Please model this.
Amino acid sequence: MRIATYNVEWFNNLFDDQNRLVPDGEWSARYRVTRRAQADALGVVFRAMDADAVMIIEAPDTGGGRNAVEALEDFAAHYSLRTTEALTGFANDTRQEIALLYDPGALRVRHAPRAGTADVPRFDGNFAIDLDVDATQDIVQFSKPPLELDITTASGTVCHLIGAHLKSKAPHGARNDADVMRMAIANRRKQLAQAIWLRARVDQVLEGDTPLMVMGDLNDGPGLDEFEGLFGRSSVEIVLGQDGQLPLFDPHAAQALSRRFGARPTTSRFWIKKEKRYLQALLDYIMVSPGLRSRDLVWRIWHPLDDPECWSDPALREALVTASDHFPVTIDLDI
Model:
């Protein structure tokens, strides 16, 4: 079975208010890329991946008449994909949902949020934590609640999936450099709190010996920015587990954690206008629980410049660059 995670930049802008794909000549939200070009590029990428299920980060919007499931299923029909059904969880107000697009012949899927406790609430609730060591509980919410799913494969294997998009807000409203730093630190504290909340849910699932995969865009990683030095650890390290917790595993995270210098895997590519160059970063992960590591696992980042097969296929290489500022990550495993 192949499972993927893919952050599709502003997928929502490719659909009209009736949840129909609009592959026309108007501009998409990607710089100088039309809606037709982005949609066709995504069609090429999804067909090339040929995944049984794709956890889509920044999926189309649900709310105000728009429906992510209808939009994704229309997209799948337009490009004759075998992943014909979609499922979402708790909707949010960012116009960027988390959704699973999957092949119903390969697996059965249901939205399965954990009931939650006072200490570890459901992901659409409020999480209490002292963010700034002032002995006062702060209330944290997810702007994009993680998507919890129970899947049953055609072979009968049951697995819990969590799709996540952790994000710290930009310092909007800052009046000077001091404001920027203060707000950036506060926002990063909130992101780390979300990671702690997510890891607490991981611990709950692992206590039940349920096979688990956590996937998506964590917007953070080892050595990514100066805040890691301030807080001592990244969101990725928190979710992977530390201090005696049962560990999750992702080989790309492990590689990045083991190297302070030298080449690291990357899953995204952003244009830095001020510096007139591209920044590449490792932001997207598929983490697995200990019980899954014996399942003949193969991870792959579909990076158009780093993956030899992607590079040698000009149509796929161009599609990956056109479709999004992130590249898909897949895992092949025997379940």
The two ends are 6 Å apart (CA to CA). The chain has a mean pLDDT of 91.
